[in-house]
Design brief:
Blueprint (H helix, E strand, L loop, with lengths): L25 H6 L30 E3 L15 E2 L5 E7 L15 E8 L5 E7 L7 E6 L5 E8 L5 E6 L5 E5 L6 E4 L8 E2 L8 E7 L4 E6 L6 E6 L13 E9 L2 E6 L24 E7 L2 E6 L4 E6 L4 E7 L11 E6 L5 E5 L5 E5 L5 E7 L7 E6 L5 E6 L9 E6 L3 E3 L1
Length: 417
């Protein structure tokens, strides 16, 4: 189900590990709206092994320069509007072999994150939001930002939308269908991927980890979706969350105060979907990206174009951006998000103006990039490299085949402290 991701080593083509090949369902999936079978689960879904932590590199101390970034220039020949001093380039194109590797970049690239490595390089993981043959691909870069290898690290899963990185070095890839799972995967492709049904079976969008409590926060991409918290039953010998068992709870919000209620049947073994099992649960209009930063869980809801902040210390939730009431409603179609070292909330648009817009700590908004000529696409997977000077992301349905392009923007987003 995965290919080992080592510098300079060839990486397996999609489907060579026994999972379905990438082309097996391409034509059907692109031309039909047939739903994915709710009962779909890969044959080896429930291997119950804890994740052994990866040795990660350290992130340098940075200060944000994002508040000083200027207005976007006119579009260049590639349709990119960038601030002065920034450049953009293509990293990988869906359906084409990643330069210098044997891995064909996957279709519909979505959520992603960067993992720092001990040698100074990093790995960028990227989901494939494609039915039946979704999975995850990964790109490895050396300390100079040169791409040195690529590989498939998860195969045989479906509609892998967003997810989240963990402090112990795994990528949690979320399946976005009615009985979807969260998969714990190894960015290096060494450890076998593991299904984590204790995190619930529902239309997962994204997940983030509070490193101080080992609790996880999850969003659900449903018009009446919920906001969830997972508390592991035990820790691994290394002291991180063991995701094989624990308590899944749902948020109930009253005047901003959050109360958590246990989900009776998180694995959806009965007939009642997870989001309907607790009467007091608060429903959100399409949960999207989620990110933990310094005691606050930020998450987006696309149905009302809101960005919310949940303070884990006070157990209160607030809206920090609402397009309907904002004096500067330039952010619409809120989707994936990430947070800088210094609390800048970067939000990718699904539709809208095809922008990545930052919400600065003072609440003001600033566009960081806009792509013209790709209105039928969405921006997904924004993630900074360890230096904070490279921002990776994808246009999910870009290119001549509408299968996706992954880019990097380079420039002075941050500087060393």
């Amino acid at each position: 189900m995965g290919g080992r991701l080592l510098s300079g080593c060839p990486s397996p083509e999609v489907g060579t590990d026994g999972g379905p090949g990438a082309d097996a369902h391409v034509s059907d999936a692109l031309t039909t709206d047939a739903p994915i079978a709710d009962a779909y689960v890969p044959q080896d879904a429930f291997v119950a092994t804890s994740f052994q932590p990866n040795a990660l590199g350290t992130r340098p101390a940075l200060r944000s320069l994002i508040g000083d970034i200027g207005a976007l220039d006119a579009a260049n020949a590639d349709g990119f509007r960038l601030p002065p001093g920034f450049t953009a380039r293509v990293v990988a194109v869906s359906g084409e072999v990643v330069p210098g590797t044997s891995y064909e970049w996957h279709i519909f690239p979505d959520g992603g994150v960067c993992f720092p490595l001990p040698d100074g390089g990093w790995v960028y993981t990227s989901n494939s939001e494609f039915p039946l043959t979704g999975g995850v691909g990964a790109l490895r870069f050396n300390r100079d930002g040169v791409l040195v290898s690529a590989a498939r690290i998860l195969d045989g899963t479906s509609v892998n939308c967003a997810g989240g990185g963990t402090p112990w070095g795994s990528w949690l890839s979320c399946e976005e269908f009615a009985r979807g799972l969260v998969w714990e995967t190894d960015p290096l492709g060494i450890q076998a991927p593991q299904a984590r049904p204790a995190l619930g079976r529902f239309k997962h969008e994204a997940v983030s980890v509070d490193p101080s409590t080992n609790q996880l926060y999850l969003t659900e991409d449903e018009p009446m979706g919920c906001f969830y918290r997972f508390t592991p039953a035990t820790l691994t010998p290394a002291g991180h969350a063991d995701l094989r068992a624990g308590r899944l709870e749902v948020a109930s919000v009253s005047d901003g105060a959050v109360t958590w209620f246990a989900i009776p049947d998180p694995e959806f073994t009965g007939s009642v979907p997870v989001r309907e099992q607790v009467e007091a649960a608060t429903h959100f209009r399409g949960g999207e990206g989620v990110w933990f930063h310094q005691g606050v869980v930020y998450f987006s809801t696309k149905g009302d174009n809101n960005i919310r902040a949940f303070d884990v210390r006070t157990q209160r939730i607030s809206v920090i951006y609402d397009a309907a009431t904002s004096l500067d409603p330039i952010l619409r179609g809120v989707d994936n998000l990430t947070v800088s070292c210094c609390g800048d909330v970067l939000v990718a648009e699904d539709g809208g103006d095809m922008e990545i817009v930052v919400i600065l700590p003072d609440g003001s908004l600033r566009p960081l990039v806009q792509i013209e000529g790709q209105d039928a696409s969405e921006i997904a997977g924004p993630a900074f490299d360890p230096s904070g000077t490279r921002l990776y992301f994808s246009s999910q349905r870009a290119g001549t085949s509408n299968r996706g392009i992954t880019y990097v923007i380079e420039g002075p987003f941050h500087a060393p402290v």
